[in-house]
Amino acid sequence: MLPEPFKASDKSGIYQTQQPLNAEAIFKMANYLARQRLRKGRIINRPDECCLALQSILQETEHEVFGVIFLDQQHRIIAQDPMFRGTINQATVYTREIVKSALGHNAAAVILFHNHPSGRTDPSSSDDQLTQTIKKALDLIEVRVLDHLILGTEGHYSYAQNGKI
């Protein structure tokens, strides 16, 4: 359901309003559109397609969130799950829980993501190690890791685009 005061236009992807908007209304609409990009059934052709949506959703978050987008064989979204909540500079991530969720969703592939509240997107050595640990665990159950995205106010970092997956 569209947030007030927006209304859908006759043209797909066009929205209208008859009144001036404050920042809160614009922010609500941006979050709505971001969640639509990550809704069940949407096809992800390139993992970085979801970066803008994830950045919109996580931009106001002052703590780390580590999540997983679960995909079927045709890279359609099954679910998007912010699985772990951390502090301002780290989140404890349990590989076992990711494997369990991947099996529960019957996923064929995943895109890992987490935010850096500092705004910087450089991966840390612990980010690198965690990515490899999760990848190895998911390889055992034949679930492909397509990417690990690090999101910040300065943009994003893609492990796939940087040849690290």
Summarize the structure.
This protein is 30% helix and 24% strand. With 165 residues, it is an alpha+beta fold.
SSE layout:
Blueprint: E1 7-8, E2 15-16, H1 23-37, H2 51-58, E3 65-71, E4 77-85, H3 95-104, E5 109-115, H4 125-140, E6 144-152, E7 155-158
Parallel strand pairs: 5-6
Antiparallel strand pairs: 1-2, 3-4, 3-5, 6-7
List the uncertain runs. Answer: none
Question: What order do the helices and strands follow?
Answer: EEHHEEHEHEE
Query: What percent of residues adopt helix (DSSP H or I)?
Result: 25-40%
Distance between the termini: 37 Å
Radius of gyration, rounded? 17 Å
Proportion of residues in extended strands? 15-25%
Profile the largest sheet. 5 strands, mixed
Describe the protein in words.
This protein has 165 residues and is α+β, with helices and mostly antiparallel strands. 30% of the residues lie in helices and 24% in strands. The chain has helices at 23-37, 51-58, 95-104, 125-140; strands spanning 7-8, 15-16, 65-71, 77-85, 109-115, 144-152, 155-158. Strands 4-3-5-6-7 form a 5-stranded mixed β-sheet, sandwiched between helices. A two-stranded antiparallel ribbon has the order 1-2. Helix 4 (125-140) links the parallel strand 5 and strand 6 (144-152). Helix 3 (95-104) crosses helix 4. It is globular.
